[in-house]
C-alpha cells in the first residue's frame, strides 16, 4: 500500500469512527486523528444543541462570539504547536537523540492538560443569566448522555471486537430438556 493510499484509508477510518460530542467528552486527543473540518462541524453541532431553547440578548451574543474567536485562536495555535512538536519528535527519534525525544514527549504530554472545549463551554455558561444556565446545563447533560450512547453503540459494532457473551437466564436453566424425564 502506498503512503498516499494509507493516508486516505486512515482518513476514511478516522471519519467512520468520528463520534459526536467532542466538546463534552474530553476526546480532544482522539480528535487529533480527525480532519480539522470534521472537528469544526462537530463543535458547531454541539454548540447548536447546547444553545437550543435559549434566547440571547445582543450583548450576550457578541460576548459569546468574542469568546469563540478567542478560544478558536488558542486551539488553532495549540494544534500548530502540537504538530511542530510531533515533527520535532520524529526528527529526534530518527537522529537517535534520546534525551531530546524524551523532553519533547513530556511537552506533548503537558499539552494534553491544557484547557480545551470544556473551558470554552464554562466561559459561555458564565455569560448566561440564571434561567439560561439551567437550560444550558440540561442541554449539556442530554448532549453528554447522547454522545455516550453513540460511543457505546460504535464500540459494540466494531468488527475487530468479539460479540459479548450472552448470559443465560435463570428460566432457561430450570426448563426441562426434552427427553429428560424424572422417574
Please sum up the structure shown.
73% of the residues lie in helices and 0% in strands.
What does this structure look like?
There is one protein chain. The chain has nine helices and no strands. By secondary structure, the chain is an all-alpha fold. It has one domain. The relative contact order is 0.12. Helix 5 (58-95) packs antiparallel against helix 7 (117-127).
Features:
single chain, flat, 183 residues
Per-chain topology:
Blueprint: H1 3-16, H2 22-25, H3 28-31, H4 36-50, H5 58-95, H6 98-111, H7 117-127, H8 130-157, H9 170-174
Helix pairs in contact: 5-6, 5-7
Class per helix and strand makeup: mainly alpha
Shape: flat
- Euclidean distance between termini CA atoms: 68 Å
Helix tally?
9
Major sheet size, sense and barrel closure: none
Amino acid at each position: 500500500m502506498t503512503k498516499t493510499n494509507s493516508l486516505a484509508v486512515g482518513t476514511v477510518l478516522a471519519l467512520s469512527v468520528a463520534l459526536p460530542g467532542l466538546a463534552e467528552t474530553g476526546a480532544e486527543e482522539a480528535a487529533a486523528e480527525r480532519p480539522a473540518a470534521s472537528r469544526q462541524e462537530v463543535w458547531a453541532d454541539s454548540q447548536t444543541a447546547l444553545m437550543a431553547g435559549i434566547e440571547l440578548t445582543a450583548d450576550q451574543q457578541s460576548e459569546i462570539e468574542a469568546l469563540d474567536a478567542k478560544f478558536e485562536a488558542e486551539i488553532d495555535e495549540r494544534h500548530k504547536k502540537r504538530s511542530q512538536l510531533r515533527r520535532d519528535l520524529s526528527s529526534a527519534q530518527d537522529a537517535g537523540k534520546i534525551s531530546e525525544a524524551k523532553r519533547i514527549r513530556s511537552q506533548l504530554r503537558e499539552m494534553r492538560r491544557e484547557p480545551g472545549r470544556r473551558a470554552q463551554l464554562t466561559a459561555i455558561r458564565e455569560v448566561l443569566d440564571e434561567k439560561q444556565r439551567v437550560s444550558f446545563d440540561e442541554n449539556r447533560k442530554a448532549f453528554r448522555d447522547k454522545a455516550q450512547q453513540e460511543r457505546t453503540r460504535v464500540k459494540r459494532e466494531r468488527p475487530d471486537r468479539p460479540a459479548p457473551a450472552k448470559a443465560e437466564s435463570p428460566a432457561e436453566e430450570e426448563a426441562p430438556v426434552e427427553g429428560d424425564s424424572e422417574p
